[in-house]
Write the structure tokens for this entry.
Amino acid sequence: MTLTESVDDQTSATRRRLFRRPSAATVVAILAPVAFVALWAWRARTAPPLEVPDPQDVFARSRDLLIGSEANHTWTSMVRIVVSVLLALVVGSSLVFMARLIPATETLVAKEILPVLNSIPSIGWAILGVIWFGVGNFAVIFVVTWILVPFCMVNMWEGLRSLDPGLIEMGRSFSRSDRRVLFRIQLPLLVPYLFASIRLSFSVGWKVALIAEFFGAKSGLGLVMNRARQSFDTATVFASIVVVTVIIVVVERLIFDPLSEMFARRSGTLGVGR
């Protein structure tokens, strides 16, 4: 094959990729949001603004909350959620590892601490946070952290249960120290479960953070929604929902999805190696 023919083949392949007909799934994924916004705009013309605000007003308020005059509320909530997710991961993982390293504590952690934390409602944590710590950042972070701890504990516990017993036994044949086996073998294998805990906690964190800020914060999206409720500003309520949705989707697509593919490839490579 000559150089000219090779270049022509590459050009043809590029054209085929550019002008390839979109799949049905892609068409549906594009048309569904467009149809939703169109239906929303039509309904806004026939309903009172208090019930269904105009999409243009909502998008304008969303822009203000993302990059405009009130963006500080959004990014304050973002910082609180990131801090809370990391703290919940540390606390939840520590409890699970404690139960693993100290068998006498396993029943306490699995049968008492985890069920109790799972059973306390979010609104209960929010009220207790305000009573104990007043209105401020610490109250919000406290509330969100303890609501997220059970999610992290469940993921880590399932991760420990799924580890290959033969691999752990082989590690113990080289070292009798349970701590060395935990940090040299088990913990590296638990990285995908740590990532899954972070991914789940981030999305859930936004839901519970707004509740916590609604009751006990001087800034944040929860406060914005509380003020909008008091002034019957439905457009701002819708805009807050849009902003949270946009942030979660963007973080999922740009951060969590690439990391998930990386962990999947790494797991596949390990599987082939075995």
